[in-house]
């Protein structure tokens, strides 16, 4: 997972070339979670990358920033960034198209106590998963979307999303969803990376929380969290009167991090 242009090293590109020459891979790819627009532009100039796996969902469109009352909200337009990269010859695979998992939490976990479906019910909003997939795929420059499927119902939803056009009803569902996830859903713009003086990797921890709550993958979330150095895992955001960083998208960073540490630490 590479989030800064300088992480795309000559060694990596050489490893790609060697793997291609030896027939181990047909296409060289890079995946990116943050700074996606900058990464797409950079990768397109290299001429050495075939395909990019990038976060892309309805919460990232420019209208999302327009809805935000904060004038400092990022104006990143991922739809255009993807179009430009595709034009330059990159294959585009979208991930995280559900903007946090929405209603797809199905598997229970002891984290959620005796009634693991409570979280699922709270997050559930009929029609949103289909609308979210349709939204990503309506960008003609998206070649495919990587969407989880853990049961037949989700398989049916995915097939419906591929079969139908994006409608006004889908738009209304997503606008309403956007309003409801506002303070909780991190758009993964990466702006808060490196801002915590105590070393908390804010965007990463928020992403781990999404693994647990949005996708029901607590084990994965905990595994990633344990990769953070112990002194940083011992930090408690609840000990800060306020977070030193203010998210331009309106994510309640301190609250979300406090919750993430309660769940994962
Ligand atoms: S919390 Fe806000 S600033 Fe930080 S990555 Fe998420 S959307 Fe960007
Ligand atoms: S609340 Fe405090 S410890 Fe947590 S990220 Fe913000 S500044 Fe860092």
For the structure shown, list the relevant keywords.
single chain; 265 residues; alpha/beta; TIM Barrel; 2 domains; four-stranded parallel β-sheet; 4 strands; globular; binds iron/sulfur cluster
Record field, number of beta strands: 4
Instruction: Provide the number of structural domains.
Output: 2
How many helical stretches?
A: 12
Largest sheet properties: 4 strands, parallel
The assigned structural class equals alpha/beta
CATH architecture of the largest domain: Alpha-Beta Barrel
CATH class of the largest domain: Alpha Beta
Provide the list of bound ligands, each named once: iron/sulfur cluster
Q: Per the principal axes of the C-alpha atoms, what is the gross shape?
A: globular
**Helix content range:** 40-55%
Distance between the termini: 23 Å
Strand order of the largest sheet: 1-2-3-4
CATH topology value of the largest domain: TIM Barrel
For the CA atoms, what is the radius of gyration?
19 Å
* Low-confidence regions: 102-114
Mean pLDDT: 85
N-to-C series of helices and strands: HEHEHHEHHEHHHHHH
Strand content: 5-15%
CATH homologous superfamily descriptor of the largest domain: NADP-dependent oxidoreductase domain
Molecular structure report:
- The chain is α/β, with parallel strands linked by helices.
- The chain folds into 2 domains: 5-181, NADP-dependent oxidoreductase domain (TIM Barrel, Alpha-Beta Barrel); 202-264, no CATH class.
- The chain is built from 12 helices and 4 strands; from the N terminus they run H-E-H-E-H-H-E-H-H-E-H-H-H-H-H-H.
- It has helices at residues 10-21, 36-46, 62-67, 78-87, 117-123, 128-137, 152-163, 168-181, 202-214, 218-225, 230-233, 253-264; strands spanning 29-32, 51-55, 91-95, 144-145.
- It has a 4-stranded parallel beta sheet with strand order 1-2-3-4, with helices on one face.
- Helix 2 links the parallel strand 1 and strand 2.
- Helix 6 crosses helix 8 (168-181).
- The longest helix has 14 residues, at 168-181.
- Mean pLDDT is 85; it is low at 102-114.
- The site of one iron/sulfur cluster has 12 residues, from helix 12.
